[in-house]
Write a structure and sequence with these properties.
5-stranded mixed sheet; Rossmann fold; 568 residues; globular; single chain; alpha/beta
Length: 568
């Protein structure tokens, strides 16, 4: 029987002809009293850290719906679930408000920390617990939920003749997110040579993560060791990501670390039969963890699932096949091939690991492929094929799969010539891996954009479309003429190399309308533009030909520029 009783908020009637929900369920049970005509509802929940109900819904035929779950960071007393229904250019927002009330009791989740600091007792306060095996309390009044219990536990604070109590009615299973960390070395948390690992770990923002942020290492067909608390520290973006995520949402998260340095996309593609298939290993780890957390005696239940992907440099210079590496000429992995392989990986993660979102960290360009300007600025941002594919993925899929970080575009080593520039100190001395300072920035960027993408109170409206030249950095202004088509036999790192490729992305990154289209509106018989931003003139196009190109977002934002054929 569902423990949440929702009441309709009168006066919140749906507009005539607007798309509708047909039904709503909470934790698998139909919501009693739901009316397709009423848009807003409210319910009371316990104080403390109660369980957040899981909402599901069914929309009318032909409509799409998105469920934005409630978030309850510490100290927040109200939140809401928003279910958005869209059809034929119209939308309806159903809201289900949750308000904490002392009349519903006080609840903690397993492994919670809660500070009990009653006012008016003065100094020299002592604390005690009626069931220290269930909830312990230290000299500061910090409570730790040690085990689940349906019996009340009373915490008493005394100072002389004065006293105060807090009754915790029960300790329940903890809701936890599965955050899969996938890709290669900058997802794994590797460091450049010359950096001390322990010194870097000390910078990993692990304060206040106890009982909130967890990690498990996956290697081969087994989970290496037990789940551990990230308060012990780890190089990489998992700690700052999960820490900030908890601060914004109140949700505990488990970082499932299955990324491996140097791993090519082939090892993440279905059908790859090699024993070192990282996709198979990730699915296997998910299966084990799901079975563990689904047992009745588990202290956790799975809440959200999603993955973070940082990969691409490997495919810029070599491929991985059965038996080992095969080295090829630069940029051997073409954008369509990367796109195809990644989408197979993404579909498999959705199907097998039940992921609800995919967050891509835009890949850096290999140093050996960067232009002279890239090296002079310390920024490796050229539009190599994997980067072009990632822009295309962002622009051709829905908002559940998106570029969640572009920190790679300006991350720089800690060198004197870059001091004071944005991104200074984010990269190690080899300009290959992030420092922990850079990983911290990465984690913050991911958490901020993911929150904005998933939170019920976020404004996800598209505001602009950004166009970039082939260097991955220089913007294209509206109406600008850019030259394309010069022969390209020059070395890959030649600063004068012309790359007949652009990139387009809808901003903000977390918009719910990320799709874009390219269209040649003048001289379309002479020129074409692919979803990867490749501008191609036909062989018989006269030198100096002009092609007007329009870039349009699904929300209706339009950018225009002209490509001029320059065969050099």
């Amino acid at each position: 029987m569902n423990e949440y009783i929702f009441f309709r908020i009168e006066g919140s009637t749906i507009q005539e002809g607007a798309p509708r929900l047909l039904s709503v369920s909470i934790d698998g049970e139909a919501l009693e009293g739901f009316s397709t005509d009423i848009l807003e509802y409210t319910a009371s929940i316990p104080e403390g850290r109660p369980r957040i109900p899981v909402f599901e819904a069914v929309a009318e035929d032909g409509a799409t719906l998105t469920v934005y779950r409630p978030t309850f960071p510490d100290g927040k007393s109200e939140s809401f679930c928003k279910i958005t229904v869209k059809k034929d250019g119209r939308r309806s927002d159903y809201r289900f408000h949750l308000k904490k009330s002392s009349e519903c009791g006080f609840v903690l989740q397993y492994d919670d920390r809660h500070l009990f600091s009653p006012k008016g007792l003065g100094e020299d306060v002592s604390f005690s617990s009626s069931a220290p095996e269930v909830i312990s309390v230290d000299e500061r009044g910090m409570l730790t939920a040690l085990q689940r219990s349906s019996a009340p536990t009373v915490i008493t604070a005394k100072a002389g003749s004065k006293s105060a109590t807090l009754t915790i009615d029960k300790v329940i299973r903890a809701q936890i997110n599965f955050f899969f960390v996938t890709g290669q070395s900058n997802a794994q948390g590797c460091l450049d040579k010359g950096l001390d690992r322990e010194e870097q770990i000390a910078l990993s923002e692990r304060a206040d993560t106890m009982g909130r942020c967890y990690c498990v290492e996956v290697k081969g067909e087994e989970i290496i060791g037990e789940i551990y608390d990230l308060s012990r520290g780890r190089v990489g973006f998992s700690t700052p990501l999960t820490k900030l995520w908890y601060e914004m949402t109140g949700e505990k998260s488990l970082a499932i670390q299955s990324a491996v340095g140097g791993s090519p996309i082939e090892r993440w593609t279905p059908g790859y039969s090699h024993r070192e298939s990282l996709l198979i290993n990730t699915i296997y780890a998910d299966k084990l963890l799901t079975e563990r957390f689904s047992r009745k005696d588990s202290d956790f239940e799975i809440y959200r699932r999603g993955y973070f992907w940082c990969q691409g440099e490997t495919g810029e210079k070599h491929l991985f096949v059965e038996g080992g590496w095969q080295w090829h000429s630069p940029t051997v992995m073409k954008a369509p091939e990367y796109y195809e392989k990644f989408m197979k990986y993404h579909s498999t993660m959705e199907k097998m690991c039940h992921t609800e979102f995919g967050a891509i960290m835009l890949v850096r360009c290999l140093a050996s492929l960067g232009t002279a300007e890239c090296h002079a600025r310390g920024e490796l941002t050229k539009l190599v094929s994997p980067r072009a594919a990632q822009y295309a993925i962002n622009g051709t899929t829905d908002s559940s799969l998106f570029i969640a970080s572009r920190i790679c575009d300006y991350a720089k080593p800690a060198e004197e010539r870059y001091e004071g520039m944005r991104g200074y100190g984010y990269m190690g001395p080899e300009n290959l891996h992030y420092t922990q300072i850079g990983y911290n920035a990465q984690g913050h960027e991911l958490a901020d954009n993911l929150y904005a993408a998933l939170a019920p109170d976020s404004d996800r409206a598209a505001t602009s479309v950004e166009l970039l030249r082939g260097d991955g950095r220089t913007p294209i202004a509206d109406g600008e003429v850019i030259k394309v088509g010069r022969p390209n036999p020059t070395p890959i790192n030649d600063a004068d190399q012309v790359n007949d490729r652009i990139a387009a992305i809808v901003l903000p990154l977390y918009t719910d309308e990320p799709r874009i289209t390219y269209e040649v509106t003048k001289n379309e018989e002479l020129c074409s533009v692919s979803i990867y931003g490749d501008i191609v003139f036909s062989d018989d196009a006269p030198n100096g030909s002009l092609a007007e190109i329009e870039v349009r977002s699904e929300s209706g934002i339009v950018r225009r520029f002209t490509a001029e054929l320059d065969r050099g």
